[in-house]
Amino acid sequence: MLVSPETPTSSQANSREPAGGLSRAPGEVEGGTYDFLIIGAGVVGCSIARELAKFKGNCLVVEKGDDVASGISKANSGVLHAGFYVPPNTLKAKLNVQGHAQFKRLSEELGFEVRAVEKLVIGMNEEEQKHLQELYETGQKNGVPGLRLIGRKEIADLEPNVNGEFALHSPLSAIIEPYQFTIALAENASRNGVQFVFDSAVVGIDRPDKRFRVRTSAGSTFFARWVVNSAGVHSDDVSRLVADTPHTVYPVRGEYYITEKVAGLFQRMIYPVPPAHGSGLGVHFTPTIENNVLIGPSAQYIDDKEDTSNTAATMRTLKAEIHKYIPKLANVDLIRNFSGIRPKLVSRTGGPRFADFVIEENPAVDHFIDLIGIESPGLTAAPAIARMVVEIIGGREDLTEDSDFCPHRESPKRFALMSPEDQARAIAENEEHGVVVCRCETVTQAEVIRAIENPLGVRSLDAVKRRCRSMMGRCQGGFCEPRIAELLIDRYGMKPTDIRRNVPGSYVFTGLVKD
């Protein structure tokens, strides 16, 4: 039950007593006791953290990566889906539509951009036209407004450089930068008292008394009354730490290309009719907030949940799709490729094509909430998923609203987007704005410093990159990365051999040539 600050709450709901008296393995360090412990700092985990921060109680987020958004949440298309892909009367459909409706308010509170670029799902023949009709009818049943079926002439009017005979036009589809959204959620949650621990994979969970004991790869032990399993592709593995689970996550790798910035070639997201095998939405073309284009993802079942490599065969397939749908895009340079892993609940060996989200209190272990198989439209649904998790907790105990909760996060304006007059004022106020560290994206030294000094305290190169866009331009860090490394060494006292790209072991320097 969700209650106001004036409503009395149970002593259990507000307990802050230390665990005490529980045995630990040699070398383990007790990391504290919490009301809520969230495993996974992706967009869903951080959405839940911010939602819980609205209520009394202390909350910890434990993440195996070096930063928030270090897994699925950074390696996707950043699309806010309108809600016509998922079957009606499913949890995915309900949370997709509910989540989409919250992004305007969230963008105003947290200072990230939502851009309504619209979407065209393209059909090349009459058979694909039938599938477009099915998507339209699904959207109608899910309550998605504004959908239209159009033909070749209107496609040419809207997007003259796009091939297609038929299309479904979605005016509500939008894009965000998914890592910026996740960072905004985490920073606001942190401001409201949520704590974050990184480089800490959960390796053991038990419950010797009324509290869970959570052990991590970093040697720490945390205690919590509630545990929320938002571990993405590893969510089934985490669930098995407390009980048998009927759910198995099958990793599906999606590979992407990123193009150089391009303007005027096309404005909307261009999607194909989803492939019949149901493992994804097909290779699509998505403009980004920064005017690059994402080409992908592919969909390949793999065995290793950590295998985010790129393959030559898939890269060739992505290039072939360019010529099929937007031939002129082939003249735009490709500056990077990457991949991410989707946590599918549908096996490659056949069976049903669709599996719904699993969001539930574990049937065998109370106070342990599983979120398994949170793939697309998980980004869009994240705010609604967070509310659902809080409702599950509120159904078991009283939750008291925290009157001190602040929903706002100030997002500084990027130097590159300022007017010349504002840039001059910024340099006058801070001379380090006069030093450009990243030429491709016009990122100043002041912005890099601000990224290094982020509220979450993470300092890998990728953490800096995601906060200020250094190393994201055409040269991919060839110019700015050495300067950022110098700042980390000279100003912050880091050893060269401690500077890493992201995860432990991804060190940039292996040693000194000479002392």
Structural write-up:
This protein has 515 residues and is an alpha/beta fold. It has helices at residues 43-52, 91-100, 103-110, 126-141, 152-158, 178-191, 235-239, 312-325, 378-394, 420-429, 445-452, 461-468, 481-490, and strands spanning 2-3, 29-39, 59-62, 79-80, 119-123, 148-151, 166-170, 174-175, 195-197, 202-206, 212-216, 220-229, 250-259, 269-272, 284-287, 293-296, 300-301, 334-344, 358-361, 368-372, 399-400, 436-438, 443-444. The protein has three domains: 2-72 and 179-247 and 354-400, FAD/NAD(P)-binding domain (3-Layer(bba) Sandwich), CATH 3.50.50; 119-171 and 250-344, D-Amino Acid Oxidase, Chain A, domain 2 (2-Layer Sandwich), CATH 3.30.9.10; 415-498. The strands form six sheets. Strands 2, 3, 9, 10, 11, 12, 19 and 20 form an eight-stranded mixed sheet that branches. Strands 13, 15, 16, 17 and 18 form a five-stranded antiparallel sheet that branches. The longest helix is centred in the C-terminal third of the chain and has 17 residues, at 378-394. The protein is globular. The protein starts with a strand and ends in a 25-residue tail after the last helix.
